[in-house]
Amino acid sequence: MKTENFDNRYQRANRKVKRIRDFYMSLLAYCIVIPLLAYINWQTTSMIWAVFPAIGWGIALVFLGICAFDLHPFLGKNWEERKLREFMNQDNT
């Protein structure tokens, strides 16, 4: 029983660490690629197109950060547990 509990905790922690690592790797890539695109845009044309990938990738980074750091503003950390208890209590009445 203890090893099962430890294995589950280890797997959850491992997934969380992987999500955080993926977020930081994507942030690093963003910080390298977007200025490069802005420079290419500045050198080649007068039309400002580099802002579109910056905005799109930035929005994706926000969602990656929310998932990586468990910052779910609408559902919260314990939302599932609270809903399960609520539905279980409704079934008992």
Query: How much is the radius of gyration in Å?
Result: 21 Å
**Percent strand:** under 5%
* Global structural class: mainly alpha
- Give me the count of strands: 0
Write the H/E string, N to C: HHH
* Low-pLDDT regions: none
Largest sheet: none
**Tally of distinct domains:** 1
Question: What general form does the structure show?
Answer: elongated
Outline the structure in words.
This protein has helices at 2-44, 51-68, 79-92. The protein is mainly alpha-helical and 93 residues long. The model has no long low-confidence stretch (mean pLDDT 89). The protein is elongated and about 70 Å long. Helices cover 81% and strands 0% of the residues. The longest helix is centred in the N-terminal third of the chain and has 43 residues, at 2-44.
Provide tags for this entry.
single chain; 93 residues; mainly alpha; 3 helices
Task: Please sum up the structure shown.
The protein has helices at residues 2-44, 51-68, 79-92. The chain is mainly alpha-helical and 93 residues long.
Secondary structure elements and pairings:
Layout: H1 2-44, H2 51-68, H3 79-92
